[in-house]
Input
Amino acid sequence: MSKVSAGLILVTLLIGLCSFVSKKEKPTLFLIGDSTVKTGRGDGSNGQWGWGSFIGDYFNPQHIDVQNKALGGTSSRTFYNNPKLWQQVLDSIRPGDYVMMQFGHNDGSPIVDTLRARGTIKGNGDAYQEVKNPLLGQNEMVYSYGYYLRLFVKNIQDKGATAVICSPIPRNRWEGDKVIQSDYAIWAKEAAEQAGAFFIPLQDLVIDDYEKRGKEEVGKLFFGPKDHTHTIKAGAEVNASLIADYLAKNPAIGLKKYLKK
Output
Protein backbone atom coordinates (compact mmCIF):
# COMPACT_ATOMS: atom_id res chain seq x y z
CA MET A 1 0.00 0.00 0.00
CA SER A 2 1.38 3.38 -0.97
CA LYS A 3 1.97 6.14 1.55
CA VAL A 4 -0.67 8.23 -0.24
CA SER A 5 -3.30 5.47 0.07
CA ALA A 6 -2.48 4.90 3.72
CA GLY A 7 -2.76 8.62 4.34
CA LEU A 8 -6.16 8.78 2.68
CA ILE A 9 -7.42 5.88 4.78
CA LEU A 10 -6.21 7.56 7.96
CA VAL A 11 -7.90 10.83 7.02
CA THR A 12 -11.13 8.98 6.25
CA LEU A 13 -11.05 7.23 9.62
CA LEU A 14 -10.42 10.50 11.44
CA ILE A 15 -13.31 12.18 9.63
CA GLY A 16 -15.58 9.27 10.53
CA LEU A 17 -14.51 9.43 14.16
CA CYS A 18 -15.11 13.17 14.34
CA SER A 19 -18.52 12.68 12.76
CA PHE A 20 -19.39 10.04 15.35
CA VAL A 21 -18.32 12.29 18.22
CA SER A 22 -20.26 15.25 16.84
CA LYS A 23 -23.41 13.13 16.65
CA LYS A 24 -23.22 12.12 20.30
CA GLU A 25 -26.64 12.56 21.84
CA LYS A 26 -27.06 15.55 24.12
CA PRO A 27 -28.24 14.82 27.66
CA THR A 28 -31.82 15.10 28.82
CA LEU A 29 -33.16 16.76 31.94
CA PHE A 30 -36.30 14.91 33.00
CA LEU A 31 -38.74 16.60 35.39
CA ILE A 32 -41.06 14.51 37.55
CA GLY A 33 -43.52 15.67 40.15
CA ASP A 34 -47.08 16.82 40.74
CA SER A 35 -49.25 19.66 39.44
CA THR A 36 -46.95 22.35 40.85
CA VAL A 37 -44.43 21.11 38.27
CA LYS A 38 -46.89 20.46 35.46
CA THR A 39 -50.58 21.30 35.55
CA GLY A 40 -52.79 19.49 33.08
CA ARG A 41 -51.05 19.29 29.71
CA GLY A 42 -48.61 21.97 30.78
CA ASP A 43 -50.09 24.54 28.43
CA GLY A 44 -52.02 26.68 30.91
CA SER A 45 -55.36 25.73 29.37
CA ASN A 46 -57.02 25.84 32.79
CA GLY A 47 -55.23 29.00 33.87
CA GLN A 48 -52.84 27.10 36.13
CA TRP A 49 -49.14 26.64 35.44
CA GLY A 50 -46.36 24.57 37.00
CA TRP A 51 -42.74 25.76 37.08
CA GLY A 52 -41.68 22.85 34.88
CA SER A 53 -43.32 24.55 31.91
CA PHE A 54 -40.82 27.41 32.13
CA ILE A 55 -37.56 26.00 33.47
CA GLY A 56 -36.66 24.86 29.96
CA ASP A 57 -36.53 28.51 28.84
CA TYR A 58 -33.29 28.90 30.82
CA PHE A 59 -31.46 26.06 29.09
CA ASN A 60 -29.72 26.03 25.73
CA PRO A 61 -31.77 23.59 23.62
CA GLN A 62 -28.74 22.86 21.44
CA HIS A 63 -26.94 21.38 24.44
CA ILE A 64 -29.67 19.70 26.52
CA ASP A 65 -33.26 18.53 26.15
CA VAL A 66 -35.79 19.28 28.89
CA GLN A 67 -38.74 16.92 29.20
CA ASN A 68 -41.48 17.66 31.71
CA LYS A 69 -42.94 14.29 32.71
CA ALA A 70 -44.73 15.48 35.86
CA LEU A 71 -48.39 14.71 36.35
CA GLY A 72 -50.92 16.55 38.46
CA GLY A 73 -52.51 14.68 41.33
CA THR A 74 -49.62 12.31 41.90
CA SER A 75 -47.66 11.68 45.05
CA SER A 76 -44.21 10.15 45.29
CA ARG A 77 -45.95 6.81 45.85
CA THR A 78 -48.40 6.87 42.94
CA PHE A 79 -45.88 8.28 40.48
CA TYR A 80 -43.32 5.62 41.40
CA ASN A 81 -45.80 2.73 41.32
CA ASN A 82 -47.61 3.65 38.09
CA PRO A 83 -45.84 1.80 35.25
CA LYS A 84 -47.10 4.39 32.77
CA LEU A 85 -45.31 7.13 34.70
CA TRP A 86 -41.99 6.35 36.37
CA GLN A 87 -41.15 3.19 34.46
CA GLN A 88 -41.53 4.98 31.13
CA VAL A 89 -39.21 7.74 32.30
CA LEU A 90 -36.75 5.23 33.72
CA ASP A 91 -36.64 3.33 30.43
CA SER A 92 -35.66 6.58 28.68
CA ILE A 93 -32.85 7.59 31.02
CA ARG A 94 -29.32 7.30 29.66
CA PRO A 95 -25.93 7.79 31.34
CA GLY A 96 -25.23 11.49 31.69
CA ASP A 97 -28.90 12.48 31.96
CA TYR A 98 -30.47 14.37 34.87
CA VAL A 99 -33.73 13.83 36.73
CA MET A 100 -35.17 16.64 38.86
CA MET A 101 -38.05 15.73 41.14
CA GLN A 102 -40.47 17.61 43.36
CA PHE A 103 -43.17 15.80 45.31
CA GLY A 104 -44.92 16.36 48.61
CA HIS A 105 -48.13 18.29 48.02
CA ASN A 106 -50.20 15.14 47.65
CA ASP A 107 -48.22 12.85 49.94
CA GLY A 108 -50.21 14.08 52.92
CA SER A 109 -53.43 12.66 51.45
CA PRO A 110 -55.07 9.56 52.98
CA ILE A 111 -53.07 6.39 52.50
CA VAL A 112 -56.26 4.43 51.89
CA ASP A 113 -59.40 5.91 50.36
CA THR A 114 -61.62 5.23 47.38
CA LEU A 115 -60.65 8.43 45.56
CA ARG A 116 -56.89 8.26 44.90
CA ALA A 117 -55.17 6.27 47.65
CA ARG A 118 -51.99 8.30 47.22
CA GLY A 119 -50.80 9.21 50.72
CA THR A 120 -47.44 8.14 52.11
CA ILE A 121 -46.13 7.65 55.63
CA LYS A 122 -44.83 10.95 56.94
CA GLY A 123 -41.08 11.30 57.26
CA ASN A 124 -37.97 9.77 55.73
CA GLY A 125 -37.84 6.51 57.63
CA ASP A 126 -37.92 2.89 56.54
CA ALA A 127 -41.27 2.10 58.16
CA TYR A 128 -43.95 0.54 56.00
CA GLN A 129 -47.62 -0.29 56.22
CA GLU A 130 -49.48 -3.05 54.42
CA VAL A 131 -52.88 -1.86 53.27
CA LYS A 132 -55.73 -3.07 51.12
CA ASN A 133 -55.77 -0.66 48.20
CA PRO A 134 -59.42 -0.38 47.06
CA LEU A 135 -58.41 1.11 43.72
CA LEU A 136 -56.04 -1.74 42.90
CA GLY A 137 -58.15 -4.41 44.56
CA GLN A 138 -55.09 -5.88 46.23
CA ASN A 139 -52.72 -5.44 49.13
CA GLU A 140 -49.98 -2.82 48.83
CA MET A 141 -46.92 -2.03 50.88
CA VAL A 142 -46.84 1.73 51.54
CA TYR A 143 -43.61 3.44 52.57
CA SER A 144 -42.56 6.89 53.73
CA TYR A 145 -42.31 9.97 51.55
CA GLY A 146 -38.54 10.03 51.90
CA TYR A 147 -38.29 6.31 51.17
CA TYR A 148 -39.96 6.78 47.77
CA LEU A 149 -37.63 9.67 46.99
CA ARG A 150 -34.69 7.43 47.80
CA LEU A 151 -36.10 4.75 45.49
CA PHE A 152 -36.21 7.28 42.66
CA VAL A 153 -32.61 8.28 43.35
CA LYS A 154 -31.40 4.68 43.44
CA ASN A 155 -33.05 3.95 40.09
CA ILE A 156 -31.57 7.11 38.57
CA GLN A 157 -28.06 6.49 39.83
CA ASP A 158 -28.17 2.88 38.65
CA LYS A 159 -28.73 4.30 35.17
CA GLY A 160 -25.63 6.47 35.44
CA ALA A 161 -27.69 9.65 35.66
CA THR A 162 -27.79 12.49 38.18
CA ALA A 163 -30.68 12.89 40.64
CA VAL A 164 -31.79 16.28 41.94
CA ILE A 165 -34.43 16.54 44.68
CA CYS A 166 -36.33 19.80 45.16
CA SER A 167 -38.21 20.53 48.35
CA PRO A 168 -41.85 21.29 47.47
CA ILE A 169 -42.81 24.87 46.80
CA PRO A 170 -44.77 26.42 49.70
CA ARG A 171 -48.49 26.92 49.63
CA ASN A 172 -49.90 30.41 49.82
CA ARG A 173 -50.59 30.16 53.53
CA TRP A 174 -49.31 32.65 56.09
CA GLU A 175 -49.01 33.27 59.77
CA GLY A 176 -48.77 37.01 60.03
CA ASP A 177 -46.09 38.14 57.58
CA LYS A 178 -44.41 34.72 57.43
CA VAL A 179 -45.16 31.91 54.97
CA ILE A 180 -46.00 28.61 56.67
CA GLN A 181 -43.27 26.03 56.11
CA SER A 182 -43.77 22.34 55.45
CA ASP A 183 -42.06 19.37 57.08
CA TYR A 184 -41.85 17.78 53.64
CA ALA A 185 -38.98 20.14 52.88
CA ILE A 186 -37.06 18.70 55.84
CA TRP A 187 -37.74 15.12 54.78
CA ALA A 188 -36.80 15.86 51.17
CA LYS A 189 -33.43 17.23 52.28
CA GLU A 190 -32.84 14.23 54.54
CA ALA A 191 -33.66 11.82 51.71
CA ALA A 192 -31.30 13.62 49.34
CA GLU A 193 -28.46 13.51 51.85
CA GLN A 194 -29.04 9.87 52.65
CA ALA A 195 -29.27 8.81 48.99
CA GLY A 196 -26.39 10.95 47.76
CA ALA A 197 -28.55 13.15 45.53
CA PHE A 198 -28.26 16.87 44.93
CA PHE A 199 -30.79 19.02 46.77
CA ILE A 200 -32.42 22.32 45.86
CA PRO A 201 -33.99 24.07 48.89
CA LEU A 202 -36.85 25.32 46.74
CA GLN A 203 -39.18 25.95 49.67
CA ASP A 204 -36.63 28.28 51.28
CA LEU A 205 -35.91 30.06 48.01
CA VAL A 206 -39.58 30.68 47.31
CA ILE A 207 -40.42 31.71 50.87
CA ASP A 208 -37.59 34.23 50.85
CA ASP A 209 -39.00 35.72 47.63
CA TYR A 210 -42.60 35.66 48.86
CA GLU A 211 -41.87 37.36 52.16
CA LYS A 212 -40.09 40.17 50.33
CA ARG A 213 -43.12 40.64 48.10
CA GLY A 214 -45.68 40.44 50.90
CA LYS A 215 -48.91 38.51 51.26
CA GLU A 216 -51.01 40.74 49.01
CA GLU A 217 -48.60 40.62 46.05
CA VAL A 218 -48.00 36.89 46.42
CA GLY A 219 -51.74 36.28 46.28
CA LYS A 220 -51.70 37.62 42.73
CA LEU A 221 -49.36 34.78 41.71
CA PHE A 222 -51.89 32.08 42.60
CA PHE A 223 -54.90 30.80 40.70
CA GLY A 224 -57.44 32.30 43.05
CA PRO A 225 -58.13 33.35 46.61
CA LYS A 226 -59.23 29.82 47.54
CA ASP A 227 -56.41 28.04 45.71
CA HIS A 228 -53.35 27.95 47.93
CA THR A 229 -51.39 25.53 45.77
CA HIS A 230 -51.55 26.27 42.05
CA THR A 231 -49.82 29.25 40.50
CA ILE A 232 -50.73 31.21 37.41
CA LYS A 233 -48.11 31.83 34.73
CA ALA A 234 -46.42 34.67 36.64
CA GLY A 235 -46.09 32.52 39.77
CA ALA A 236 -44.68 29.55 37.88
CA GLU A 237 -42.18 31.83 36.15
CA VAL A 238 -40.99 33.10 39.54
CA ASN A 239 -40.38 29.55 40.77
CA ALA A 240 -38.59 28.54 37.57
CA SER A 241 -36.32 31.57 37.75
CA LEU A 242 -35.37 30.75 41.34
CA ILE A 243 -34.38 27.21 40.34
CA ALA A 244 -32.33 28.44 37.38
CA ASP A 245 -30.57 30.99 39.58
CA TYR A 246 -29.74 28.30 42.13
CA LEU A 247 -28.33 26.03 39.41
CA ALA A 248 -26.15 28.88 38.15
CA LYS A 249 -24.76 29.47 41.64
CA ASN A 250 -24.16 25.78 42.34
CA PRO A 251 -22.08 24.36 39.48
CA ALA A 252 -21.44 21.09 41.34
CA ILE A 253 -24.94 19.94 40.33
CA GLY A 254 -23.70 19.92 36.75
CA LEU A 255 -26.51 21.80 35.03
CA LYS A 256 -24.92 25.25 35.03
CA LYS A 257 -22.98 24.53 31.84
CA TYR A 258 -26.26 23.96 29.97
CA LEU A 259 -27.88 27.25 30.99
CA LYS A 260 -28.12 30.04 28.47
CA LYS A 261 -25.34 32.57 28.85
Observations:
- The first strand starts at residue 28 and ends at 33.
